[in-house]
Specification:
The protein is α/β, with parallel strands linked by helices. The protein folds into 2 domains: 228 residues, 2-enoyl-CoA Hydratase, Chain A, domain 1 (Alpha-Beta Complex), CATH 3.90.226.10; 40 residues. Helices cover 46% and strands 17% of the residues. The protein has 10 helices and 11 strands. α1 links the parallel β3 and β4. α3 runs parallel beside α4. The protein is globular, with a radius of gyration of 19 Å.
């Protein structure tokens, strides 16, 4: 199969309990292989551009999330990964040049629309109702760092590194970059990266909480992601989605509001109790 921007793998358990691979509808950029049931893997595959974010990549990522989150879907986790050269080196330069041309001509609305289109590649994981895991090897830079930050859990190989780089290229961070950094690693470490432009290697990223699990190589990184997703495979999917929603609410609510919400949902779900 010919690959262009994105490799997508989608696996489910068939009616007879066997593992089967299913295509993402209307996706021209697709590879199917059995990795694990009910797990979607999106592997960026633009090695020549170090997996820089293109318009086609955005389209494919959105399409996969649309299918994974749709009614009747059995998807329990989404894994995001790159290749041996990079996780993602940021936005495609031509996208930035196009936005600059629009801004230079005074058309700020069009420039804004171009940038906001790029943002969707990491806003979809960030806002997804499905748990997301980033497997990071090589560079996660700029908007590529945002993709990693948008995942629920980050697993990295020892060859991974993380860099904001916006200051270096003379562009203000975008896509909620400063908020994502501050939420993940706190104000001081966010300033180390966004303001002082410090590159963070995988070991340091693990130490400061940017990475939750450090592995020896990219293969082990993907294995660890699948193993992390394993408890979700037999879990009640509606309950999983409800817990995801509550965790999202908790980050922007008081303890009292969270207590009330959890009690309401817990009481309604008592019939599912498996004791």
């Amino acid at each position: 199969m010919k690959f262009t921007d994105t490799i997508i793998t989608y696996h489910q358990i068939g009616p007879d309990g066997a593992l089967v691979s299913r295509p993402i509808p209307e996706s021209p950029f697709l590879e199917t292989a059995v990795v694990h049931p009910c797990v979607v893997q999106i592997r960026f595959n633009r090695s020549q551009a170090r997996n820089a974010i293109s318009g086609l990549m955005v389209d494919e990522v959105e399409r996969v999330f649309d299918v994974a989150e749709s009614n009747g879907s059995e998807v329990r986790a989404i894994i995001l990964s790159g290749d041996s050269k990079a996780f993602c080196a940021g936005a495609e330069l031509e996208s930035l040049r196009s936005a600059k041309r629009q801004a230079d001509s005074g058309d700020l609305q069009s420039a804004r629309a171009l940038l906001e289109r790029v943002y969707q590649v990491f806003l979809r994981p960030l806002r997804s109702t499905i748990p997301t895991i980033a497997c990071i090897d090589g560079a996660a830079v700029g908007a590529g760092l945002n993709i990693a930050l948008g995942a629920d859990v980050r697993i990295a190989s020892v060859g991974a590194y993380f860099e904001s780089r916006f200051l270096k290229i003379g562009l203000h961070p975008g896509g909620g970059h400063t908020w994502l950094l501050d939420r993940a690693i706190g104000s001081a470490n966010a300033k180390r990266m966004a303001l002082f432009n410090q590159r963070i290697d995988a070991a340091e990223a693990t130490r400061i909480g940017l990475v939750q699990l450090l592995t020896s190589d990219p293969v082990e990184c993907e294995r660890a992601a699948i193993e992390l997703a394993r408890p979700l495979l037999d879990a009640n999917r509606d309950l999983m989605l409800a817990i995801m929603g509550s965790l999202g609410m908790a980050s922007r609510s008081t303890h009292e509001d969270t207590l009330r919400h959890e009690t309401d949902v817990q009481v309604k779900g008592l019939s599912r109790l498996t004791l």
